[in-house]
Structures are given as structure tokens and as C-alpha cells.
Amino acid sequence: MCDTCGCGQPDEAVTIRKPGEDGHSHPHHHEHDHNHPHDHSYSHDHNREIVIETDILAKNNLIAERNRGFFEAKNIFVLNLVSSPGSGKTTLLEKTISTLKDKITCAVIEGDQQTMNDANRIDATGAAVVQVNTGTGCHLDSEMINQGSKRLELKNDSILFIENVGNLVCPALFDLGETHKVVIISVTEGDDKPHKYPTMFRVSDLCIINKTDLLPYVEFDVEKCKEYARQVNPNLKFIEISATKGDGMNTWTDWLLSNVQKQ
Amino acid sequence: MHEMTIAVSIVDVVCKKAIKENAIKINNIILEIGELSGVMVDALEFCFEAATKNTIADGAQLKIHNIKAEAFCKSCNNNFSIESDFSPCPTCDNFNFEITKGKELTIKSFNID
User: Fold this and answer.
1) What is the pLDDT of residue A3?
2) Which residues in chain B are closer than 8 Å to A7, comparing Cβ atoms?
3) How large is the ipTM?
4) Do B86 and A228 touch (CB under 8 A)?
5) How close is the nearest chain A Cα to the Cα of B98, in Å?
6) Domain annotation covers residue B16
7) Which of A6, A255, B36, B63 is paired with A237 by a 20 to 30 Å CA distance?
8) Could you give the CA distance from residue A118 to residue A127 in angstroms, rounded to a whole number?
9) How far apart are CA B19 and CA A56, in angstroms?
């Protein structure tokens, strides 16, 4: 139970930490006006219909737009990286940050249910990083990005990478205020992933096909994967990469740099 | 299981508004959920019950109107019903369409005492 208000949410369900810090933050901002005793003596009309016509995700979307305004004002190019667990997101980020080191400032918000492992790996590259541990949560939301961004002291004219929780379902629904969603699929997965998880491919602007150095050893058909993905999202762009061997990395970093200049 | 987050959002929004209306109890909540919204209705119903515990929405009935997915084909200018996430326009067989209905995630209304 949450110590702040005694509500049903677990205490410290979400923590936001920089490498080397203890996890003691209490960032979940729920309202504290529920479950109050109702002992005043109003007269109540019974069986009243209240029409509200409200988007269920309105609160998340509102904070996402505030984030977006902040990022635009500072000319920060923000990518929300989404994929299954194990697609190579963190390795891709390590290599990307090392390649861009002398050209542009990069910062990272890492999302995982538990551990500081990914933040520690990014920290070793020298980029500013915070780790969001979602506890049992299956996705990042815009409030976590709002809090995380404040901890990062983001620079103008920079790139912010958000590595979402490894999950091809839930993060599709939550706008974080990013410039683009980038879906990553590795060739060790099935080439029919775009059909199995269409929502994620529909909401993304770029698809990175990673671990292409393993193509000779697996039955992954790159063209078939692209065809499936285009059926869900005809505007999706593709970059094929081997983050560990370096193939295709130039195309990716050129795309990043040209987008930051375009903003 | 993002349906739990969705369920908690629904209960938060409705309880807040209901308390302003001096409600002592929420009887039902009416939602519109689109086929392509990415929300599983069964999972949402399951989570809703847990999310209402210790709130004035405890015991409230969740009524969900499913919204069929529709699209406008930009190649042949036709409206059509989407049969699956990756079926082409039935008239011209293209995938160049815009989804016009089916992404809804809306709280329409609720009933209070």
C-alpha cells in the first residue's frame, strides 16, 4: 500500500534514478481525493446520468503534449524505442551514442521493470541517463518521461532516446511526447511479427531490423517482414542494422543527424 | 497488461467527476471501445473490478459499446469496414488507407446516486 495516501497502489511502484543513486523517489502523482468519508448532509438525486465524453487516456495525452512542447522549445529530437525484450535496443544505443559523441549531445531515459543494468551500460558511454523502474508496470507513461526529463537537465539541440519497457503491446497506446516511435525487430524473431503485433507497427514511423549479421543462420525473410509491416502501415520506413558489427549504422546515424538539423 | 492502467484511469476520471456531483455511489459507466484501440475488452472488465475497490465506483456495472473499425481508402476514395488489421481495401486491394473509426477509447457517461 502507498504510504503517501494509503491507496491501493504499491509504495515505490515506480522509481526514477541516475546510476549510483538509491531508489527512494515517489513519482506517482495520483489524486488523493478518493474514498473520503461522506458524512455531510447534501440531498442526493438518485439515478442521475452524467455525460462526459472524455478520452480515457486524456491525462496521459495532456502531459505528453506538455513534454512535446518542452522538447520542441529546446529543439530536442526525441525517439521512443519500442520492441520485444532482447531485440538489441541497449546495444544499439551504446553504439549510436559512441558514434555520435563528437557530433551531438545524447541523453537516455531507460525503462525496465527492475534493475539499473541498462542505465549503467549507457552511463559507461558518458551520456546522461536516468533509469525508470516501473515495478510491475508494462510500459512507460508521459508522467514518467516528464519526471525523468527534469532529472536529465537536457541540452538544447540534442537527442533524447527513450528505451521503453521491452513489450510489443502496451507501449503502443501511451504517447510520451516523442517526435517519433521507432520499432525494433531482430532477425532472431519471426518475420511475421508485424502481423502478430500490428498496433505497434501502425503507430511507429521507423522500423529498425537489427542483428542482420545473423541472417545466414536464421529463417528470417527481410522482404517478407517489410511487406507484412507495410500492410499495417504503408508509410513505415526501414533501416537494416547490425549494431554489434556496425553494418547499416551510418544510415541510422545520418537519419538521426538530418532530423535534428531539420527541426 | 496496460488494461489495468486504463481501468485505473477510468475510475479516477469518473470518481473525481462524481464526487463533484455529490454522488454517493456510481451505478454504471458507459464506454466506447474501438476494435483497433489496442484494448482487450475481457481484460479491461477483469481489471475494472479490481480498480474500483474502495472507491464509490465499487460494484458499478461497466457497459462497453464496441465500435467497428472503418477506413477511407486514399487510392480509390472508398469507405469500407476493416475485417482484420492487415486486410487491404476490398475495392482496389491497396493498403493505402486511413482508419476513420475503431480507435475509440472514450468514457461516454455514467450513472450515479
Assistant:
1) 34
2) 54
3) 0.87
4) yes
5) 10
6) yes
7) B36
8) 12
9) 18
The Cα–Cα gap between B80 and A170 comes to 27
Residues forming beta bridges with residue A77, ordered by sequence position: A159
Q: Which fold has domain A58-182+249-262?
A: Rossmann fold (3.40.50)
Instruction: Say if CB A63 and CB A143 are below 8 A apart.
Output: yes
Closest-approach residue (CA) in chain A for B3: A170
Interface of B with A (CB under 8 A): 1-2, 5-6, 9-10, 12-19, 21-24, 27, 31, 36-39, 53-56, 85-86, 88, 95-96, 105-113
What is the residue type of B37? S
Exposed, middle or buried, A177 (CB in 10 Å: 0-12/13-18/19+)? buried
Give a yes or no: residue B39 inside a domain.
Answer: yes
**Number of domains within chain B:** 1
The pTM of this model reads 0.87
**All 3 cell numbers of residue B14?**
469518473
Query: Any idea where the domains of chain A sit in the sequence?
Result: 58-182+249-262
- Percent of chain A whose pLDDT exceeds 70: 86
- Record: contact A174-B2, CB cut-off 8 A: yes
- Residue B84 counted as domain residue: no
Nearest to B17 among A52, A56, A230 (CB): A52
User: In this complex, which of B2, B14, B85 lies closest to A138 when CB atoms are compared?
Assistant: B2
| Domain CATH code at residue B16 | 3.30.2320.50
Q: Once rounded to an integer, what is the mean pLDDT over residues B79-104? A: 89
